[in-house]
Amino acid sequence: MNRTDRREGEDAMIFETKTCTGCKTCEIACSFRHRKIFNTSISSIEIVEKGLEFEIRLHESDQDGHLTCDGCEGREEPNCVRYCPPVNRNELKSVIEEFRWRMTH
What is the per-residue pLDDT for 3? Predict the structure, then answer.
């Protein structure tokens, strides 16, 4: 996993990923946690296809309909990590841990 620089006009932390398959289960779990609906367009986490790989975007403010990511504050395991397929889970967990750390420092 590599953190990439913020892109102009985006208020999101962006991570390149090697294991994500693009299933978007994390997006669905996130939207349900926030609004009790399954709607990837409001999710705080966004999976974006980049050629043969994917990047993970964690929104730091409400933007383009996406809600601000709070890292599932107060929960031991964020919903996105909890429902991520096992093959991808460790990498996503690392992304969320870094995001949580950056939120507090």
Answer: 52
